[in-house]
Design goal:
With about 475 residues, the chain is α/β, with parallel strands linked by helices. Helix content is about 35%, strand content about 30%. The protein has 16 helices and 24 strands. The strands form 5 sheets. Strands 13, 16, 17, 18, 19, 20, 21, 22, 23 and 24 form a 10-stranded mixed beta sheet that branches. Strands 5, 6, 7, 8, 9, 10, 11 and 12 form an 8-stranded mixed beta sheet that branches. α9 packs across α16 and α10 crosses α16. The termini are far apart.
């Protein structure tokens, strides 16, 4: 009995220590003050004081990999730049790197995002063609506070030979309002934020953005660097996911004078579309017509550009790129945006229009170790993507599915897993016969579909289609 009583006492002591130990650990979390300036889509605060946006989600992810708890302090960008330097605020995000700032602040080793400068006019203002900035001479341009944007404008003025009147806006919302209210002709914004309903006449200076602290705040930056490195290793697609979620703007992109002339002369363009690609494209033999996401995209592009497309159905199993090379059509859809395809001399590829995580699908009651030898069916995955996955997972035996029935093989336990795009996994897992399937939580990479254009066509067609796809986004 004494042994039993003593054992109970010991267990109680351990339980108390565990509870208090956890509490003490929680209390030890370091509170870090973050300068929270308004930037729609990137960092926002609602009426109840709840924060949201790209940076908020990124910082919450940093909390998971560190002993940090962030406190968000509202204010203006220019004010926070001074407060970070003095140490009154611990850090800020979305800061571009310049030589002047490197002397004043400590930067994170890894970038936390990407950005570029966007020049906007009102949608009904058609005075300016894309990248034809010489006509900005004598106009008024509104941009944000700080030396960085001013330096950018001065560089553009020198490069394109124009002089403009400069108007300063305290934040993105004020700059947009000045443009809407015709207090300026052109607005200059960062692509990091959200803005819609304008006409894009120029995009410049693509660059990374970083977190900054005061130079002496090395311990904090060590924790930030450690957490960002962990995020990059464990969830390499995280930044991509945030950009897709928060940096989608709906604006019209202006054409250059040369592009406008090219469109007037362009004849009908033949486009190859897969006959049966689930929700992406489906061909009706009787009506000789298509339905689906890809068809809708092409119709949107045609409406925005005036291009006339002739749709050519591609039989299942036919090599789409070989058909392009043989001249069966001039443009083909549903091509993966891989490094090999980007570097091809035979065709040009557009920006991606359908990003999807490449997903592993397995049986609900079976767990697996990614280090084991596994037999995996690859369903509708490009060979270059398969090669990339094999390089990172040499123990995996990846088989290309030829019969279009990979999930039947999985249900029969003839393979361990199926690898496919996220949308294909969702489509098949909703079927009654696949109720025992689940997505396996293992980060692979992003599969991105695009349009391939025969290299014999003018490069301007690629630019025009890319601009139209930007508009649709």
């Amino acid at each position: 009995m004494n042994i039993k009583k003593n054992l109970i006492k010991v267990l109680i002591i351990f339980a108390v220590l565990f509870v208090f130990g956890t509490s003490v650990y929680a209390e030890k979390k370091e509170t870090v003050k973050v300068g929270w300036f308004p930037l729609e889509g990137f960092q926002e605060v609602d009426e109840d004081g709840n924060c949201s946006g790209y940076n908020y989600e990124y910082l919450k992810k940093i909390e998971q990999f560190s002993g940090i708890e962030f406190e968000f302090v509202e204010g203006d960008w220019s004010e926070f730049m001074e407060l970070v330097q003095s140490g009154d605020i611990d850090m800020m995000g979305n800061i571009s790197m310049t030589d002047v700032r490197l002397a004043k602040y400590k930067y994170s080793r890894l970038p936390m995002g990407e950005s570029h400068t966007v020049l906007l006019t009102r949608q009904d203002d058609e005075r300016f063609a894309y990248d034809d900035l010489a006509v900005l001479d004598g106009t008024s341009i509104c941009f944000g506070t700080g030396d960085y944007k001013l330096d950018e404008i001065k560089k553009l003025e020198k490069e394109y030979g124009f002089k403009s009147n400069h108007i300063i806006g305290d934040n993105n919302t004020e700059i947009q309002n000045k443009l809407i209210n015709k207090e300026c002709d052109v607005a200059v914004l960062s692509s990091s934020g959200e803005f819609s309903g304008f006409r894009v006449i120029g995009e410049y200076n693509p660059h990374f953005t970083y977190y900054i602290t005061a130079p002496e705040n090395t311990e904090l930056m060590k924790q930030i660097d450690y957490a960002m490195n962990k995020i990059k290793l464990c969830e390499p697609s995280f930044s991509y996911y945030l950009m897709e979620k928060y940096q989608k703007n709906s604006n019209i992109i202006a054409y250059t004078k040369e592009e406008e002339a090219y469109l007037k002369k362009l004849e009908k363009v033949k486009v190859g579309i897969p006959k049966d690609s689930l929700v992406l494209s489906l061909y009706n033999e009787e009506s000789n017509s298509f339905t689906g996401v890809i068809y809708d995209l092409l119709e949107d592009i045609a409406e925005r550009t005036g291009i006339e497309f002739e749709y050519i159905p591609i039989e299942e199993g036919k090599d789409k790129l070989r058909g392009l090379k043989n001249g069966d059509y001039q443009v083909v859809t549903d091509i993966e945006r891989t490094t090999a395809n980007l570097n091809s001399m035979d065709f040009m590829v557009t920006e991606g229009y359908l990003p999807s995580e490449i997903t592993l699908v397995g049986l609900r009651n079976i767990e697996f170790d990614p280090m084991e030898t596994l037999n995996i069916n690859a369903y509708n995955i490009d060979q270059s993507t398969i090669n990339s996955i094999k390089d990172r997972n040499p123990s995996w035996n990846i088989i290309i599915d030829e019969d279009d029935s990979p999930f039947d093989e999985l249900n029969k336990k003839k393979v361990d897993l199926v690898i496919c795009s996220g949308y294909l996994a969702d489509y098949h897992m909703q079927m009654p016969r696949n109720t025992d399937l689940k997505k396996v939580n293992f980060d692979l990479n992003i599969k991105e579909s695009c349009i391939a254009i025969d290299s014999s066509l003018d490069y301007m067609l690629l630019n025009i289609i890319n601009k139209a796809m930007h508009d649709i986004d």
